[in-house]
Input
Amino acid sequence: MSMDQDRIDARRHAARLRARLVNAAPVAGTALVAIAATAFAGEAAPLVAPLGGAAVIAAALFWPQPSRSRTEIPAGVIDTGTGGSAPDAPTLAELADAVPEPIVLIDGAGIVVQVNRAASEAFGALPPGLMLRIRFRAPEMQGMIDALISRGEAPAIDYAERVPFERAYRVSAMRVGAGRRLFALVFRDQSEARRIDRMRADFIANASHELRTPLASISGFIETLRGPAKNDATARESFLGIMQRQTERMARLIDDLLSLSRLEMRTYVRPTTPVDLVAIVSQVAEALGQMARDAEIVFEISLPPGPVEVPGNRDELIQIFQNLIENAIKYGGEGGRVEISMEDRRASSENEVAVTIRDHGPGIAEEHIPRITERFYRVDVETSRATKGTGLGLAIVKHIVTRHDARLTIKSELGQGAAFTVHMPGTVH
Ligand SMILES: Nc1ncnc2c1ncn2[C@@H]1O[C@H](COP(=O)(O)OP(=O)(O)OP(=O)(O)O)[C@@H](O)[C@H]1O
Ligand SMILES: [Mg+2]
Output
């Protein structure tokens, strides 16, 4: 069959299919909308929603047709989109457009019959009559199309688009209707899932590395104590001291990891109980007083005289200010003073209470600022380790801040110190 004949046949086929889609709309409409909604809500198991959507379209295509639509539709007839029994019932094509996953219908020769809107948005124009293999040249897609043409079935594949930006899809093909050579290709976007997988892998690698370092050091000291330093009392004392600090570090790291995972796991309902921020901040400053004195730092505290109540979780808010003030002491210590201030802006349009912890240390270079709230991110790993940091403090802060619908802003310039401000909403929105 010539290419032109192929195209004409495909167009006719498409027109017939459109008519069927239009007629079958009321039958499948409700189901498809439900499936689309589930897919949007992200609750369907992977592939269930798009495959379900494709199955509904497929079922609709082969639903017994009212006699009017059985008449042959001449080539080139355009879908008016007004068929079906109820005058304003959506057409199936419209419903397919509401499915977020790209769906491409091809015939037994690998020629596009119809696509939904998500497919046109993701892959550009895919007009009926186009040979699909011309648009998708990747070997895995070619293999899938070949398998569908020759065997009428193909296993799901992974397919990646690199331009205009990287996207990863799981593509499944299913036959539409029995005895027909028509296939629905459903593209399930896996990019976000891949990104999360990568983050998880990085996280585990980082956590293991952080635990392995002190563990290796402890094991080295044990060996020395059993061997060369067996009878050396002074060395033993000093090594045991180091070993104790290393185990404390591991315990701290595990506490932080647990704290992070608890924050992530717990479904969170924003607290509505008012807590007094002034009391919380003063309590944390007092608790860290000794640490500040040891580092020869003075606190300059400027808080409103009375209580300032905002909805929040007391323990979590304590964790925020503990981390921020500790950081100011550890990393901004050379400035000699740390300012702790609070501004009550609940009466203004911002409706917030802003708590700022400002130090006068070396500050943070601009390129690091967006990243320091990432897990394990440290500007200077050695300084952070020396101060027993795990690099998880600000990640925890960011988490708690987000759960409270609050914001964290960081202002800093190299050599000018750093200011971390927590903007707490004054009331629950
Ligand atoms: N006030 C500050 N001045 C300069 N650098 C800072 C300041 N606060 C944080 N940083 C940088 O941000 C990094 C991340 O801080 P974060 O609190 O997340 O981790 P950490 O303090 O190293 O460890 P942890 O808080 O778990 O003990 C720090 O290692 C440090 O490099
Ligand atoms: Mg910290």
